[in-house]
Amino acid sequence: MTRLIFLGPPGAGKGTQAQIMAEHLSIPHISTGDILRQAMKEQTPLGIKAQSYVDSGDLVPDQLVQDLVAERLEQADAQSGWILDGFPRKVTQAAFLEELLQTTGQGGEKVVNLDAPDAVVVARLLSRGRKDDSEEVIRHRLEVYRHETAPLIDYYRDRHKLLTVNGDQSQAEVTHALKATLENRE
Ligand code: ADP
Q: What local confidence, expressed as pLDDT, does residue 1 receive?
């Protein structure tokens, strides 16, 4: 049973690598960013509530993402493992997840910290061209990452769940490093 949380700054390649590993392991890739973008595209109540936060690079309120994650992890395909990408993004969300996994008996998760320097992630994000990838919004997202999300590195290290992979390599090299790290983790 594999349950993984992908952590790292925007642009570190979390989404790409999470997708590759999910296919490799035949488990769902659950990206809160993807789910929110889909909801915004369809203008669902969730999408409408999330829009202004996502557009300005702020975190959407905990309750919104926590509800969507709790619901997603209940689905049948998530019972044989999952990769969470983009959640948790702050300590309050991590505490929520810890309790949720305890209640539902889905423990044993590992956290992959995909690390890359600021200059690298900014360059990657600028070339990606998503709507929330303007330079100003990118800088804000990095700031939010540093203040809210980076503390999760210590949070999970303290809980002996943290694995670190260097994201500042080619996509194939990151995949290779990731597989090696996951295979040696026990
Ligand atoms: P990236 O990894 O490039 O930063 P994501 O696709 O993970 O982008 O997230 C895009 C946006 O969706 C974030 O900037 C934020 O507004 C919102 N979002 C995604 N996940 C969360 C979360 N766990 N908590 C709050 N907001 C979130």
A: 87
Residue owning the nearest CA to atom 4 of ligand 1: 10
Write the single-letter amino acid at 49. Answer: K
> What domain count does the chain have?
1
CATH code: domain of residue 126: 3.40.50.300
- 100: its two tokens: 């949720």
Q: How confident is the model at residue 171 (pLDDT cuts 50, 70, 90)?
A: very high
Distance CA 11, CA 158 (A): 25
Per-residue tokens: 176:
């290779």
Is residue 40 included in any domain, yes or no?
yes
- Please give the residue range of the domain that contains residue 63: 2-179
Task: Give yes or no for residue 32 CB within 6 A of ligand 1.
Answer: yes
**185 lies in some domain:** no
Residue 141, ligand 1, Cβ within 6 A: yes
Q: Is residue 5 within 6 Å of ligand 1 at its C-beta? A: no
pLDDT digits (tens, 9 = 90+) for 115-133: 999 899 999 999 988 888 8
CA of 186 to the centre of ligand 1 (A): 30
